[in-house]
Amino acid sequence: MAQYLLSVHGSVDDPAPDMAEMQPVFEAVERFNDKLRAEGAWVFAGGLHPIEAATTVDAQGDRAVVTDGPYVESKEFLGGFWIIEAADLDAALDWAAQGSRACAGAVEVRPFQED
Predict the structure, then answer these.
(1) Global confidence as pTM
(2) CATH: 3.40.50.620, 2.170.150.20, 3.30.70.1060, 3.30.70.20. Which one for 2-111?
(3) Of 26, 32, 35, 97, which cross-links 102 as Cys (Cβ 3.0–4.6 Å)?
């Protein structure tokens, strides 16, 4: 089976929901995670701290340069992700639709490169 990255993106322009609004989303995502595990599609998943917690390391020169913040200045950011196994792109897209519904956000699907 092929592996796919299902990534959840957000925008700094999106209003920050309070915990009462997020609790049903957390529960829906956990049910989705349970379904992925039960059907053997789960590889790994994780939510990320806010973009302000990012640190960028660039070691392309003589020494590593470490800077606070994301690699690019952008309004969009990666909020979390799943790595799944699916028979094909259509199956991955179906999982992404379910994940999108659960997390109440858009989900991008990208296949991993084959060995």
Answers:
(1) 0.86
(2) 3.30.70.1060
(3) 32
